């Protein structure tokens, strides 16, 4: 959970038909282990709401992808783990780099996510 749109996002093409004028904000609120118990070592799946607000030539465009799902692979110490996300408006890939914790001896409590997606 990102506690709102705390991440930064940019768009290369139109958003709801309008030209982006600069970087926007994005966030994700969801849960992992929605089908079975998951760990960061085993990988797994989850679901949630992806939201993004992009400033455009006609004002801020806000999109909330409420049916977003994701899958991710297992974490290996010292390297990021990655996954895919899919929803009715946004889909793509992401990489996660833990900032606090190692998933083996200490839970991961902070991480940085980089994603690349297509907005429809």
- Percent of sequence in beta strands: over 45%
| 3D shape | elongated
Binned, the helix content reads: under 10%
Distance between the termini: 23 Å
Q: How does the major sheet shape up?
A: 7 strands, antiparallel
Oligomer: single chain
Order of adjacent strands in the largest pleated sheet: 1-2-3-4-5-6-7
How many separate domains? 1
How many helices? 0
Q: Structural class, from helix and strand content?
A: mainly beta
Pick out the low-confidence regions: none
> If you compute it from the alpha carbons, what radius of gyration comes out, rounded to the nearest whole angstrom?
15 Å
Keywords:
7 strands; 120 residues; mainly beta; elongated; seven-stranded antiparallel β-sheet; single chain
Brief write-up:
The chain is an all-beta fold and 120 residues long. It is built from no helices and 7 strands.
Q: How does this structure look, described?
A:
It is elongated, with a radius of gyration of 15 Å. It starts with 6 loop residues before the first strand and ends with a strand. The relative contact order is 0.17. The chain has 120 residues and is mostly beta strands. The chain is built from no helices and seven strands. The model has no long low-confidence stretch (mean pLDDT 89). The protein has one domain (7-119). Strands 1-2-3-4-5-6-7 form a seven-stranded antiparallel sheet, with no helix packed on it. The chain is 0% helix and 52% strand.
